[in-house]
Amino acid sequence: IEDVLSPDTCVCRTDDGRLVEGLRAASLETVVPRGGSDRVMVVLGEHAGLVGRILERQRALVQLGRDAQVLPLPYDAICHYVGGAEDD
To answer: What is the predominant subcellular site recorded for this chain (predicted)?
Structure first.
């Protein structure tokens, strides 16, 4: 996802670099990182917009930011995050 245009539409970049505008959220698939300690963004619920690290993939156990708070979240509530970090 490159940009969010409204609460239910966005602009996405394909693997071959093309931009596709006006995609509806229902058309997207959640991507959960494969590696341990990879960053994810919470996209649904009260913690939406927060970035954390995935601690356990089997049940999507996520530690938010530098906070000690660890939450079990459904896979539909998170996505792989490749944006900049606060300390970058």
So the answer is: nucleus
Q: Would residue 20 count as lying in a domain?
A: yes
Q: Domain check: are 24 and 52 in the same one?
A: no
**Do 49 and 69 fall into the same domain?**
yes
pTM equals 0.63
CA distance 80 to 88: 18
Which residues are CB-neighbours of 19 under 8 A, at least 6 positions away? 2, 11, 12, 13
**What domain count does the chain have?**
2
Tens digit of pLDDT for each residue in 54-83? 888 777 888 887 767 899 988 888 888 877
Q: Is residue 86 part of a domain?
A: no
Separation of alpha carbons 72 and 34, rounded Å: 17
For residues 8 and 49, give the distance between their C-alpha atoms in angstroms, rounded to a whole number. Answer: 15
